[in-house]
Amino acid sequence: MVNSLSLYIQWGMWNNHHIQNHMKMMRYHCLLFPFLKEKIDL
User: What is this structure's pTM?
Assistant: First the structure.
C-alpha cells in the first residue's frame, strides 16, 4: 500500500515537472516562431 502510494506521488511530481517543461517550450515557441517567420518571409 505504501509502495503504490509513493509511486503515485512520484508520478504526480514527475508529471507536474513535465507539464511545466512543456509550458516553457510552448512559451519559447510562441516567442520564437513569429521571429523565424519574419526572417523566412524576408
Answer: 0.42
